[in-house]
Every structure is written in C-alpha cells, then in structure tokens.
Amino acid sequence: MPGFDLFPTFYFVPTYLICWLLLAGLVLRPKWGKRLFLPLSLILLFLLRLPSIWFNNEINPDESQMITQAMTLAQDPIYFRSVDGTTGGPLDSYALVVPSWLGLPFDYISAHLLAFGLIALFLVFTFRAAQLWFGIRSAQLALFPLVVLLGLTQNGDFLHYNSELVAIVLLAGATYLLARQQQSEPVRPQLFLIGFLLGMVPFGKLQGVPLAAVVGLFTGFDILRRTTTPMPQKAGQLAILTLGGLLFPALFVLFMAVGGQLDSFVTFYIEGNFNYATGGNQLDNLLHLPRFFGKGSEFAWLVSLTIALPIIWLIASRLTRPTHNGLGVSALSADRASQTDPLFYVGFLSLLTLITFYAITRTGSEYVHYLFFLMGPFMLWLAYAWSGLLAYNQPVQWVGIGILAVYLLGFGVQALNRYQQGAPMNPYPSDNQGGWQLPKADIVKEIVKYAQPGEKLVVWGWRCDYYVQAQMQQGVAENHTIRSTFAHPMLDIYQRRYVADFKRSFPPVFVDAVGSQNLWMNDRKTQGFEIIRPLAQFVTANYRYVGLFNDARLYVRNDRFNANR
Questions:
Q1: What is the pLDDT of residues 164-180, one digit of tens each?
Q2: Is the four-CA dihedral 211, 214, 218, 220 of positive or negative sign?
Q3: Residues of 139-174 as b/e, b for ≥16 C-beta within 10 angstroms?
Q4: pLDDT digit string (tens) for 372-403?
Q5: How do the residues of the chain divide into helix, strand and coil, expressed in percent and rounded to 5?
Q6: CA 187 to CA 185: how far, in whole Å?
C-alpha cells in the first residue's frame, strides 16, 4: 500500500467531499438512508483516519508503553508481575494482544487499527442507544459531527491508541443495554450483562468508575420505578445487576491471587493511582474546562455545537409550536424523548455529564485524550436536541442543518489554511517508512547486535518506543520510570520493585535513555539510573558501558559483550 506524504491533497479533497455527500444524504433522506447511514459513516471514518492508521510510529508515547506491555503479556500474561500500566487499566494492554491472534505484529499500525475498531464499536453502541431513545433521524444527525471530528482532526490525542478507548466502549455498551431495557420489561440476562460491562470499566480506566456508577444507578432506578413489577421481583433484578457488576472484579482478584500478585494489584493499581496527581483545587479545575476543551482543537467546536442546538430548540419552543413535518419524521418517532420520558433522559444525561466533568478534571492534568469520556454524553445530548428540533417546521430545522454545515466547513477552511501556510495537512507521513516497516533508531540498531527479538530489554527513562522497535519484552514492570524517579509518597516502593524486577529478568541489554531525546527526564545527574544506589551497583558489577546513542547510554551484560567481541 502506498504511503501518505505531508500534503495528501488528492486524498484529502475526495474524502472531505464525501463528508458533504453524507450530510446531503441526511437532508435528502434517500430510501437507503436508514439502513446504510451507520455503515457508510464507519467506512468514511476509516478512510478519513487512514493516513494516521498507516503511520507506523508512535503518535503519542502512551502507544509505545501499551504495545510493549501487550508484547510482554503475550509471553507472561500475569499482570503486575510482568507489566504495570500505571494509570492505564490491564484491559488496555490485554486488548492489544488480540491483533496478534490474527497474525498482526506488535506495532503501531496494529494499535491504530485496534483504536479505530474500538472507536467504531463505541459509536455503534452510542448510536443504537440514541436511536432507541430519540429516534433514527436524531441518532444519525448526532453521529455525523462525531464522525467528522474523529476523522478530520489532526490532534494526535484523538488518533492514537489510548487507555480511554476500552472504558468508553464498555460504558457505551452498558448505556445501549439500558436503553433497550427501557423498551420492555427488564430481563435477567440483560441486567447481568449491564452489570458485567460496568464491572469491567475500572480495569479499563479507573477514571471511568464514576461514569459507570451513573449508568448503574439509573439502571437500578429504572427497575425500581416500574409500578407493575412486584417488589420481590425488583429485588431479584437488582441482585442480578449487582452480581453482574461484582463478577469480573472478583475474577480478576482471583487471577491476581493465583498469580501471586494480589498485593501488587492493591499497592500499584489502587493505592498508586489514588496517590497520582492530586490535581489541586477541584473547583479551579472545573473553571478551566473551556481551556481544556481548547486543547482538544476541534473538540471545542463539538462543545459549541452541543450547546447551540439545545438553545435553538429552546428558542423555537418559545416562538412556535411543534408540527412534526419538514426534515423531521412522523409524530410517532420524532421528539420521542419529550413525548415519553423526558425527566429520565435529562436526569441521566445531566448527571452523567457533570460526573464526567469531575472525572476528567480531578487530576488537573488536562490530557486531551480524557475528552473521549465526554463524547458519549455529548452525542446523546445532540440526539436529544435533534429529537426536539425535528418536531418543528422547516425553518427551525434548517437552522440546525446550517450549523452542522458550518461545523463541517470549519474543517475544510482549517485544512486550506494549513496548506496555504505550508503547515502539514497530514502530520503523520508514511511515504518513506517502507510499507509495513518499523523505524529503528541508532540505539536500537546497536541493541539488536547484542540481543534478539523476544528477549528482555530494560530502558530507564521514558522511551518505550525502543522496546517496540527492537521487538523486545520489557524486563521490569514499570517500562517508563517516572514513578521510580520523581518524588511522591510511594517512591521507595516503586524503586525497590524496579531493582527486584531488574535482577529477576537480568536483561542482556540495559539502556539509560535520560537525555535530550527522552520524555520528561533529561538531567542525568538527578534522573539517571544511578539515583537508585542498589541498581547502580548491580549494573556496574554485571554490565559493560558500550557508548552513547541517541543521547542515551547503552550497557551490555558482560557475557553478551564478551561473546560479541
């Protein structure tokens, strides 16, 4: 497959025009629209993201971290013994093992393909929930801006494989099942599955726990509010929901206990993450949300759209009456939310949105990929707003469609400005990567002289891409060593584990990547591996310094060094 250069104009223009055709389809409502809109949207999303998917290098350092963890888990599947994903849950790394079952390598293209698959699954679940609650047309109109954003953005935080993706799929799946539950009497297998999916969320991302609690709370509320269901039956349904929620955590705790890692699970995942990034004043963090949205580039446009449509609906409700015609659908399916259960939807979406605001701002880090947690609530809000707008006459509906058109136009204007200014339209070029080939830094070329793919490697610092390029497993649980370097209450615990892991794996090659090409850690005097005295002593006694490559120090185990002389 040919690669994409920095200015793939002949690819961008046709795919961007297809976005306009999809929007036109929403307005013209062809007969195939109901059945084909969702699959066509996902195909378009894949085409729009293809330049970044085919980029076989890290878009974000987190990708290298998780690919390395997956590569290691494929050989030693006991989490916390072989790997520690720090803020990322175990499921994020285990998920990256799946492409290898299909014969794909542990590299960035495979990770980008999996990221697309998870995003597509998230959009399908959220679309189906919106369809059940607000009608097919509302769901389609709400899906469109998400496809445009996730397809046309060049913000790497929305393109790389990240630790939010598994969690948002689980949350979206549970929300879809909740929407299905509302259509009829709750059935036990479905309640159990809702609980099971929500119980998995903490193992995708602890940050998603408050969101899972909201979905679980409203599932229980929907059970309790049914006046025709006897109380003993409600109690049984709640018990099934609770049992489903507890099952996966219980299985994982058992897995940890059998693998001898239960203490590590509690110490490094629960305690370690609660000690991570206290984040200062929560109110200040919330007040900085507009700044946070701005860091998401075009995400701020989605926020504006999500605010604008309900305002238009509110104004229309004051100036005119619903007519259920024009671009909308029949009275049977238009404005379904306001006709059936508005308090439930408004209550659910309001609480879910507020809790999400809290969850993404608690640490104060403002990492842009946290914004993935808001995409589900925003898409449902958009669908709810459209369910109201579609009940009004054509002028009201055309205002909404016009705003969608301006939203899409903004991406085209932005791309044109980049082109005119000489800024890359595609920051992820693949035209010189040699097809499905991994790049190799100079230090990696030296590493493979002394070690083989599949062996253990230890890199002190934050350059997990060296593991991926060398196709070598990590020899310590913490493959990016910020928690063994920077001051925090558990620093001593992390350092002692690091030394123990190093001695246990006894890797043939050791790299101290601290230097000008390392992330966050650049000062060898205060951040080099020598800050851990037992580690420095062990390396001095058992390794030979080979040289400086990519401003990183390379050490080779004595027996390997002697064998290669």
A1: 999 999 999 999 999 99
A2: positive
A3: bbbbbbbbbbbbbbbbbbbbbbbbbbbbbbbbbbbb
A4: 999 999 999 999 999 999 988 888 899 999 99
A5: 65, 5, 30
A6: 6
How many H helices and E strands in the chain? 26, 5
List the structure tokens of 354: 């507020």
Q: Which residue stretches of 422-464 are H helix?
A: 442-450
Looking at this protein, which amino acid is placed at residue 365? S
Decide the pairing of beta strands 509-512 and 456-460: parallel
Query: What CA–CA distance (Å, rounded) separates 403 from 396?
Result: 11
* Sheet of 543-549, strand order: 473-474, 456-460, 509-512, 552-557, 543-549
Picking from 269, 208, 266, 336, the residue whose alpha carbon sits closest to that of residue 478 is 269
pLDDT digits (tens, 9 = 90+) for 407-436: 999 999 999 999 999 999 999 999 989 889
HEC secondary structure over 72-93: HHCCCCCCCCCCCCCCECHHHH
Identity of the amino acid at 459? V
Distance CA(431)–CA(101), nearest Å, equals: 28
